[in-house]
């Protein structure tokens, strides 16, 4: 099983990191853009939407170029998640939503992420996890992201799939054969 | 970052994120390999907790940093070999 990561920073100068960190490919901002509103969607590219606005999140379900959404506040939205499941889009967890330097804050974030992940798994929403690193200091290896996924309540197999499924969908395997 | 200087700080941050019982089980030791590569030696079956704890360390003192776990192994010898061949590339 191959693993994929998505980052917000342009890390093309660190190309050797991809295999060192255990990934098949790390998608950068030129390949998958991270957007805050559906209006910012590039018609030809792929995007991941980050928002806490229910209207934006609902609109994203109808935008073909949006492959995944991030609930910025990690609130449980059961109705929206049912629609997300039916649309085939991914509910993405970003590493920076889980990690905090302050241990008390980290516990609170993990609890919230666990609640969201538990509900999402129950409803059947496809999940993904990515570093969405804003800089080189915020990248993680595939091992670390799998552990983070397990920390928020996913089993080992589910955690591996969280690191594989969305990237596999976007990875151009025809080109690589 | 000099792993020799920061080993104690890394362990204290690991203690903060793992909690006393898990930290005692793991008993981590830092083995520097180079300026920015080090090996964390932990007890068997505690490596996953150590990997998770290391992910939460984003700064040591006033130095901002990110720690990536790139390899795990049952022997330090194989990790040293991998680290040194990776540095040469």
- Total beta-strand segments of chain A: 7
Using CB atoms under 8 Å apart, which protein chain pair has the greatest interface?
A-B, 22 and 20 residues
Would you report the number of β strands of chain B?
A: 4
Judged by helices, strands and strand pairing, the structural class of chain B is alpha+beta
Structural descriptors:
A: 177 residues, TIM Barrel, two-stranded parallel ribbon, B: 89 residues, alpha+beta, Alpha-Beta Plaits, two-stranded antiparallel sheet, 4 helices, 4 strands
Write up what this structure looks like.
The complex is a heterodimer of chains A (177) and B (89). By secondary structure, chain A is of the alpha/beta class. Helix content of chain A is 41%, strand content 18%. Chain A contains nine helices and seven strands. Chain A has helices at 17-20, 54-60, 78-87, 95-98, 103-123, 142-151, 156-162, 165-170, 173-176; strands at 4-6, 25-27, 32-35, 46-51, 66-71, 90-94, 127-130. In chain A, helix 6 packs across helix 7. The model of chain A is unreliable at 173-177 (pLDDT under 50). Chain B is an alpha+beta fold. Chain B has a single domain (3-88), classed as Alpha-Beta Plaits (2-Layer Sandwich), CATH 3.30.70. Chain B has helices at residues 3-18, 20-26, 47-55, 76-88, and strands at residues 29-34, 37-41, 59-60, 63-64. Chain A binds chain B through residues 16, 20-22, 95, 99-101, 103, 106, 136-141, 143-144, 147-148, 150-151, and chain B through 16-17, 48, 51-52, 54-59, 64-66, 68-70, 72, 86, 89.
Break the fold down into its secondary structure elements and pairings.
The complex is a heterodimer of chains A (177) and B (89).
Chain A: E1 4-6, H1 17-20, E2 25-27, E3 32-35, E4 46-51, H2 54-60, E5 66-71, H3 78-87, E6 90-94, H4 95-98, H5 103-123, E7 127-130, H6 142-151, H7 156-162, H8 165-170, H9 173-176
Parallel strand pairs in A: 1-2, 3-4, 4-5, 5-6, 6-7
Chain B: H1 3-18, H2 20-26, E1 29-34, E2 37-41, H3 47-55, E3 59-60, E4 63-64, H4 76-88
Helix pairs in contact in B: 1-2, 1-3
């Amino acid at each position: 099983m191959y693993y994929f990561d998505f980052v917000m920073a342009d890390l093309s100068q660190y190309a050797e990191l991809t295999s060192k960190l255990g990934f098949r490919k790390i998608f950068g901002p030129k390949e998958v853009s991270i957007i805050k509103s559906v209006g910012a969607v590039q018609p030809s590219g792929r995007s991941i939407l980050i928002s806490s606005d229910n209207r934006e999140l609902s609109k994203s379900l109808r935008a073909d170029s949006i492959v995944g959404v991030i609930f910025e506040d990690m609130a449980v939205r059961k109705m929206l998640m049912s629609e997300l499941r039916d649309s085939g889009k991914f509910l993405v967890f970003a590493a920076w939503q889980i990690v905090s330097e302050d241990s008390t804050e980290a516990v609170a974030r993990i609890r919230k992420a666990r609640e969201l992940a538990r509900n999402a798994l129950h409803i059947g929403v496809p999940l993904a996890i990515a570093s969405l690193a804003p800089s080189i200091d915020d990248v993680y290896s595939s091992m670390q992201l799998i552990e983070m996924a397990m920390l928020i309540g996913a089993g080992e197999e589910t955690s591996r799939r969280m690191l594989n499924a969305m990237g596999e969908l976007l990875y151009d395997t025809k080109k690589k054969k | 970052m000099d792993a020799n200087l920061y080993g104690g700080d890394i362990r204290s941050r690991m203690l903060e994120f793992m909690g006393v019982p898990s930290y005692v089980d793991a008993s981590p030791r830092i083995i520097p390999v180079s300026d920015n590569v080090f090996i964390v030696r932990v007890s068997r079956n505690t490596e996953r907790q150590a990997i998770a704890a290391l992910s939460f360390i984003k700064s040591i003192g006033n130095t901002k940093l990110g720690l990536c776990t790139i390899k795990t192994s049952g022997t330090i010898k194989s990790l040293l070999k991998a680290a040194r061949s990776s540095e040469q590339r």
